[in-house]
Amino acid sequence: MRRLTGVALRTTSWTLGAVVALLIVPGSPRAASEIGETAFQFLTLGAGAREEALGAGTVLSRGAGALAWNPALLQGIRTPTISASWFNWLTDVQAGHVSAAAPLGRGSVGLLAQSLSISDFRNVPGSTAIGQSDLAVSVGGAYPVVERLDAGASLRLIRSSLADQDASGWAGDAGLNYRYVEGWNVAAAVRNAGPAFGYGNGLEDQLPTQSALGVAGTLGELRFGLEGFWENGPGWRTAIGAEYLFRDRIALRAGSRVGDEPDGAVEPWSAGIGLKARRGLELDYAFRDGAFDASHRLGVQWTLDRSLDEPGEELARSPRDYYADVVNNVMDQAMVDFPRNDVTDVVVRASGTHAAASLIAETVAGRLREMGLTAEAGEPPPDVPVTGNPEDDAAIRQAMEDAGTLGTETDRTVLEFDVRESRYAILRESRERWIGPRSIEREAVVGLDLRLMPAGTDEPIWSFSGDAQRTERVAAHQVPKSQGYPRAGGTAKGERKMHPLVEPAIVGGIVTGLAVIFFANRDVSN
Asked: pTM for this structure?
């Protein structure tokens, strides 16, 4: 117990210390007036239409483009991924990115190229037309430092051309991502930290260094994030974004940022949509409003191994399959002395009606077929009516035997079973660290009595009695539904179904929020 407590304390202390150090590193910038103004703003454009719509890329970014926001988030990549995006602004401004990432050993590596170009323009009529082009190439990676904590870093080479002058330099990024529970994370990042440089022999300009800290969570199909970040020049800002996944195919996104400008203006709001065109291919679109003009960004992301679905988690056994596994555990015991050399063709059936009779018969028959026997599941014999009069009961039974409706096989061996115990139950449910996804502890119990009877007789040549039990804890959302027995939901209180109005209410709330933000920004800009 002391050892576990010590590990937890060391992990927490290491995490807090790393976050503080990461945010303090760029926390003492030189005043802009000492060596020129903050420049090279194309570095703050980020990468990806999804992140552009959400705004909170430090905690919400994923895929290869995460290298532009928080290199620690590359650790979530499970298979080689390529992403690209392009957007235009004010007609003459074009920008985009291309990135690639892949797992490497226990970590991940990535490559990112960002570019911006401005067509030739004139500051005043009659002056010489000038243009601008910027390019930044980054290489980086991520690695798990301790349990639940990933760290990442990248180096970025920068080159900018303005009119007939060139500027080149470098910058570094660093990030942390703490996976608190599944679907919830706390992240911090430093972006564009590096020395000042300038065009030709002019003043050196500072980089738009940013420090960011945020938290993201998941509630059902809704993913959201909130982060605060400081930028060299504008100061502190806050970003919030949310994404709602509709039927695991269409994502609705929205975001906004609040800055500390003197007039209290709100930065352009954003909205977007994502579409999973097919497995491994996602198309994204983002719209960001602005005081001068709106911008549109298009993005695409390819997952090269299409056998992996996002989020890439393996499903648990369905209730039916889980129960069948326990039946097979009973058969493991029974097969030790089963007289497999004495039979070749077997009918498996229950001795009477039972809710689990069909599933058990199919499972046992399948087990016999694996042994090379001919086997099929049969229907249990019908119940003999009981009148209370011995003579009448005997007459009814004799009539059923003469009609062959008691189920006695005359030409095939019968493996008959009685179900002594049968149970599938959700024992309890809980959430990891209070806010994590729901997990359930479930149990399946099976007790069977088996009798092997040759054709034309009711006298068994072999019998067996066995029990099996299995208990496991699994994430509730990983348990797929199944038809038939056992009928059990994913919680201790039974199946919880979403009210049909909940999903439209969520979508309507997002749309309403977008409209409110839109008109609020219009009032400010006016």
From this structure: 0.67
